[in-house]
Amino acid sequence: LSLKFGDIGNLKGLVIRLLLTTSYYQLSVQNWFSLHRLQLLYNHSVQATFNATGIHAPATYSFHCEHVSSLQRYDALLIPSSANDLSQLWEVTFIDFQIQGFNVQEGRFAYARDCASFFSPAILMGLVMSLILLLVLAYALHMLIHLKSLDRHYECKASPAYFAQMKDNDMGDEKEPLRNSGNESYELRNQQFGKIYI
Question: Where does it live in the cell (predicted)?
């Protein structure tokens, strides 16, 4: 596929040649086309050659991408074929690029397969944040369950059954008056709890 600029000033002799190939893939059970190479010709001589990577789609589809470029800031889908030729001197960028090599009907593009990845940085960041929130929620639920088990533990410890013996002793103790230097005092028979003076 050759794109000629016609009689547009300095671009009169410039031709962009796109070499498209088609192949059959058994895994997808259909033909796919791919952009194999891009060549820049000026005055019928090849000036630069770029290998294309990732530009492919089913043969019944078209391929669309916001930027197809040799620049790194646009993910560099066009790579110079050799470090020794003039490709390093050229910077090629197509904006809103769409191509369909085969099965073109009524001069219109078919449904486009976009180059945008399903896992863009924004989507990955959203997934990471969701994972962090789920971990925090799981930790909070774990702590709530742990607190409930502690409440049950303290309920057992605070049960009146532990103090039954002490209450029985309190009920069984009797006070008896003591006479000591004119002050009236009472002493519990069970010496385990000490003395009380009034």
Answer: Membrane
H/E stretch holding 113 reads strand 112-114
C-beta separation of 180 from 196 below 8 A: no
What is the DSSP code string of 138-183?
Answer: HHHHHHHHHHHHHHHHHHHHT-GGGGHHHHHHHHH--EEEEEETTE
Domain boundaries, the chain: 2-116, 119-156
What's the full length of the chain, in residues?
198
pLDDT of 68-104, one tens digit each? 888 888 888 888 887 666 777 888 889 988 888 787 8
Mean pLDDT of the chain: 76
Token pair for 141: 């639920």
Do residues 15 and 3 lie in contact, with contact meaning Cβ atoms separated by under 8 Å?
yes
pTM to 2 decimals? 0.53
Element (H, E) at 40: strand 30-42
